Amino acid sequence: VLGNAHVSLFFAGGQSPGSARRALAAYAQAERVDPAAAANPDLHLNRATLLQYLERFQAALEGLSRAAELAPGWDEPRKRHGNLLEFLSRLCGLLANRVGLGALGGTGRGVGGTGKNGAGLG
Questions:
Q1: Do 27 and 43 meet the contact criterion of CB atoms below 8 Å apart?
Q2: Crossing angle of helices 2-12/41-53, nearest 10°?
Q3: Per-residue pLDDT tens for 97-110?
Q4: FRET pair for 6, CA 20 to 30 Å: which of 18, 23, 53, 66?
Q5: What is the pLDDT of residue 98?
Q6: What pTM was estimated for this model as a whole?
Q7: Helices (H), 1-122
Q8: Nearest to 94 by CA among 120, 113, 61, 119
Q9: What is the fold of 2-76?
């Protein structure tokens, strides 16, 4: 509940980094001290929402996966996981095209020189 309150403050109060940090800390503490909270798919979905907004995509995907594991009948985490993967795939494609056109040095190997998908995310 405290994590969700800080997330609300984050979005309503000008996206303060302090509110985001406090929300993530509250989620982590709830997970540590309360086994029921650690098994609550809403906690993982809500934290993943914030992580996605903060562009911490790997952690967001992990949270969405955990929420889906904990609530197999709930479609929302799986749908959002798929949407995020699709977004990241499109982003990688755009970055790869941009690199292929020489916008980032013309190596065609992608950001970070991965040569795989242009953003080192795949």
A1: yes
A2: 30
A3: 887 655 555 444 44
A4: 66
A5: 82
A6: 0.76
A7: 2-12, 17-33, 35-38, 41-53, 57-70, 75-100
A8: 119
A9: 1.25.40
